[in-house]
Design a protein that fits this description.
The complex is a heterodimer of chains A (364) and B (289). Chain A starts with 9 loop residues before the first helix and ends in a 5-residue tail after the last helix. Chain A is built from twelve helices and 14 strands. The N terminus of chain A is likely disordered. Chain A is α/β, with parallel strands linked by helices and 364 residues long. In chain B, the strands form two sheets. A six-stranded parallel sheet of chain B has the order 3-2-1-4-5-6, sandwiched between helices. Chain B has a six-stranded antiparallel sheet with strand order 7-8-9-10-11-12. In chain B, strand 8 and strand 9 form a beta hairpin. Chain B starts with a strand and ends with a helix. The relative contact order of chain B is 0.12. Classes of the chains: A alpha/beta (364), B alpha/beta (289).
């Protein structure tokens, strides 16, 4: 197999599982990461892409890419719903590689998150199994699936760390859905031999996504509650994350592997907040030390249980351990197994992100 | 021990499961969804031992005494009929059925078998609803209900519902005390002229209120309301409302109620959907025993 383009050496292209003419499916192609992924694949010379988007998705960016790469690349845009088996069959027909970016994001309800992440993934896998042409399923998971409960402070969180065994107790529908999504991908791998690689990005940031992650703090009551303190925030700049996802889709010999994606030189929550205030806008923030946030999470958890859900159990000790406990992160496996290096240094990434925030660029 | 099952494992099933768990002497013996994964996730989160992808399997193997039907409206009739025929009491989420004919058949079947059945208009039994009924019976408000329907919408971008209620700050709902925001509205059309709206399914817990992120819906915690809109369909904006927050109730007039409306005797209502709904047929464990 050979992929000849400026971004890939001949030796690199020899170790890829697909050729540039093989059909690649990107679900969630209109999303923040999906759009950038499509662009990056085209930049690398892959010229047979199928972009699957929801019927309501804005597709201006994909259409712009289609116009830009109209010479020599075939970009098929498919609108549909992954809850439909028919749509899944149409999406996966003759596909060699799938980047499964689509997921239920923002749902507060467990059934909704589950439906839009797990049932959709199962439908897609089922369609792949029937089609029989798939060489790899790249499952986009999240760093949120890891449990940190039994680890001491400042321990390293890497791919060897355990995943939440009872994700429903985290009180986080997204975490629950992602844990279950990973499980079903593994199950299909074992039962039907569908080859997969799981990628677990940290907090993906960049122009087009202006929100501050909850790992830094929570904006409420007119004051930003700073909860992260000296914790490193597991950022990954959009371009670096996309690079890791693409490598996870292309490299030979990594089926069944899991890769966490975080950048180098991660800033602490305090450093990030200071930079944000300096570069984007000033606002009041109130720092809560870790023992205070732990106590508040504990009280919230107890009150939620005592009141039988009068307050939803969204803050609890498991959540605190996962989001606000002092933890270090590693991208060592990503570097050694995939040869990944962050193309955009974190300082440059933050600079671009702050500039986009200043200009008020909203989510993609 | 009363054996309860839930059919339909979507969003609202979570609320049913959590409330059933609170009742002593009740056990959820099985959950069912046409999509087995959905049934599995509900069973796992609520510690239910068995889950099913087929209703007949649930009925024959779990043998529930009561079945809560929380599926989409178009499936209510067939599922409720099958459950009643299997000897189960049923709780049907709103809207009860798609048409009056289906409702009549189900009610007849339940009465024939001596089984309890109720529609999920749970706010009918809140203080505000009871107060409203007494006002109707005293003759202060009311006319005979002739039609009932539920309007479903979760799409905030959907203009018919969300556009009016959420985007339009001038909408009458937004001007109500507490800025009540709900996601399910039941409309009772009083002789095509007067409208009673039940707003209430999204207002009891902060969890539910948070369904509208970014909107000032937290004030709806613990509140419920029943609105009577007099002559609303004729374009007359006169309306009054009875609110209750905790144990506190008040009646608010948003415009003049120019006249008292004819009193209503709900039990004589010839229209079974509404009639049944207003007859205090609450499904409770004591009642079933």
């Amino acid at each position: 197999m050979s992929v000849n383009n400026d971004n890939m050496t001949p030796s690199e292209s020899d170790s890829l599982i697909v050729d540039r003419d093989d059909l690649i499916l990107v679900t969630g192609a209109a999303g923040f990461i999906g759009t950038r992924l499509v662009e990056s694949l085209l930049d690398r010379g892959f010229r047979n892409l199928r972009c699957f988007v929801r019927p309501s998705s804005k597709i201006a960016k994909i259409e712009a890419l289609r116009d830009r790469y109209c010479q020599g690349a075939r970009i098929e845009l498919v609108r549909g719903n992954l809850l439909s088996n028919q749509d899944c069959a149409a999406a996966t027909k003759d596909v060699a590689l799938i980047f499964h970016m689509a997921a239920g994001r923002g749902e507060k309800s467990f059934p909704d998150a589950f439906l839009n992440s797990v049932v959709t993934t199962r439908n897609l896998l089922e369609a792949c199994h029937r089609d029989g042409n798939l060489r790899r399923f790249v499952n986009i998971s999240s760093l949120a699936v890891y449990t940190n409960t039994k680890k001491s402070r400042w321990r390293l969180l890497d791919e060897s760390c355990p995943v939440e065994e009872q994700p429903s107790l985290r009180g986080d529908a997204y975490c629950f859905a992602k844990v279950k999504q990973d499980e079903i991908v593994n199950e299909y791998g074992k039962r039907f031999g569908i080859p997969s690689v799981t990628v677990r990005p940290g907090y993906v940031f960049g122009p087009g996504k202006t929100a501050i992650t909850g790992r830094v703090g929570i904006g409420t009551f007119g004051v930003f509650l700073h909860l992260g303190g000296s914790n490193p925030i597991p950022f990954t700049y959009i371009d670096n994350c996309v690079e890791a996802i693409i490598l996870a889709g292309l490299r030979m010999g990594i089926d069944g592997d899991v890769f966490n994606v975080v950048d180098d030189d991660l800033p602490s929550s305090r450093q990030f907040l200071r930079l944000y205030k300096q570069n984007v806008r000033r606002f009041k923030s109130l720092y809560f030390p870790h023992f205070v946030t732990y106590a508040l999470c504990y009280l919230w958890e107890r009150y939620s249980a005592w009141s039988e859900g009068q307050l939803p159990p969204i803050y609890n000790r498991r959540h605190w351990h996962a989001y606000w406990k002092k933890t270090r992160y590693s991208n060592q496996k990503l570097r050694t197994r995939l040869g990944w290096t962050p193309k955009v240094p974190i300082a440059e990434g933050l600079s671009r992100y702050f500039e986009a925030c200043r200009k008020g660029q909203s989510d993609a | 021990m009363l054996k309860v099952s839930i059919v339909g494992c979507g969003k609202i099933a979570d609320d049913h499961a959590s409330q059933i768990r609170r009742i002593k002497g009740c056990e959820i013996v099985g959950v069912c969804d046409r999509e087995p994964l959905m049934a599995q996730q509900l069973a796992e989160r609520f510690g239910v031992r068995r889950y099913f992808g087929d209703l007949t399997d649930l009925l024959s193997e779990a043998k529930p005494d009561v079945v809560h039907i929380t599926t989409p409206p178009q499936s209510h009739f067939d599922i409720a009929k099958l459950c009643l025929e299997s000897g189960c009491h049923v709780y049907v989420e709103k809207p009860f059925t798609l048409c009056e004919e289906q409702a009549e058949k189900l009610i007849a079947l339940a009465e024939e078998r001596g089984l309890k059945m109720t529609a999920g208009h749970d706010d009918q039994f809140r203080p505000a609803a009871r107060r409203m009924r007494s006002l109707l019976q005293e003759g202060f408000l009311g006319a005979g209900p002739v039609h009932m329907e539920s309007y479903y919408c979760y799409e905030l971008g959907q203009s018919d519902y969300a556009g009016a209620l959420l985007s339009d700050k001038g909408h009458w709902v937004r001007r109500l005390p507490g800025k009540l925001l709900q996601n399910i509205i039941s409309i009772f059309d009083f002789t095509k002229r007067n409208v009673l709206m039940e707003l209430g399914t999204h207002c009891r817990t902060s969890k539910r209120s948070s369904s509208f992120p970014g909107k000032s819906s937290t004030r709806t915690i613990h509140s419920s309301c029943i609105l009577l809109l007099s002559n609303f369909l004729r374009g007359d904006a006169s309306c009054s409302a009875i609110f209750s927050i905790g144990n506190y109730q008040w009646i608010s007039n948003f415009a003049n109620i120019s006249k008292r409306i004819e009193p209503t005797n709900f039990t004589d209502n010839p229209h079974p959907v509404s009639c049944y709904d207003f007859r205090n047929h609450r499904l409770g464990t004591d009642e079933i025993r």
